[in-house]
Amino acid sequence: MSGLEKISLQNFRSYEKRTFELGSKTVVVGENGSGKSNLMEAIYLLATGKSFRAERDNEMVAYGQEFARVNGEIDETELEVILNERKQFKVNGVARRQIDFVGKLPTVIFSPQDLELVTGSPSGRRRYLDSVIFQVDREYRRCLISYEKGVRQRNRLLDAIREGRAGRNQLFFWDRLLIKNGEYITRKREDYLRELGEGEYGTEYDKSVISEARLKQYETEEVAAATTLVGPHRDDFVINLKGRDVSKFGSRGEQRMAVLWLKKGEMRYLGGSPLLLLDDIFSELDHKHREEVTGWVEDYGGQVVMTTADRHLLPADGADTIIEL
User: Are 111 and 37 in contact (CB under 8 A)?
Assistant: First the structure.
């Protein structure tokens, strides 16, 4: 089998120590609170170096423990993430930077929280864009890491300028860094959203362009707020159905189908057959859409790991490995 063959968790969320063997179509069955989503989070962490639900890394460390470890085997390659005072990445036991670690396990996750991609905050949609492009574009990873550090440093400097502890001329370096990296981030986000355009659904990119002129335009407001007010950290996008914002004018069902449309586009963008993580999504779908997803999973040529609290929702012929929690 090509894909994630085994994953071991230590002090990760609810798991003190546990190893799971995975098949090409794996179903994880357990009651709510049994740790199904924790397992999915650990797999996603191996794929992207990030959680799909934790705001801070230390939230993934079991209560009272000083560290957590996630180890996975994929095509004779060992991937490891260690969470302690800082996050560490290893490939075959050798330390790697996150920029070089990500991309070895292309993964798409479907979860009940995905509806927030339509109805939630712009920050969640930005994280989504980053999580997708991060997996395939090393330069994007480099630019994003540099840009995010640059914004934090520039905001500190803006605060010092406001307090009279620094001069405005000290912004020059950080302005150049943000403009250079921000332009690449914007271009790649624009390319990705354009590639999604297909069928009745589409996207509209509300980009916050960063340039010397725009930074000049907001220089007074930025010092007053001690915050960088323009750039891709202010981006957003809207999903439209037949040209109308589905978050405002779409039914709940249309919003769920918009998420499915978005995720299918993500799969095309990643290429090949990425690992699919379906975290308790069958309970969120009506019978018609459940059958549609089930048929899609059964026909999918790549690896699938899905969770459910209800055995009756299992695809009839869609599993070769069942894990009971």
Answer: yes
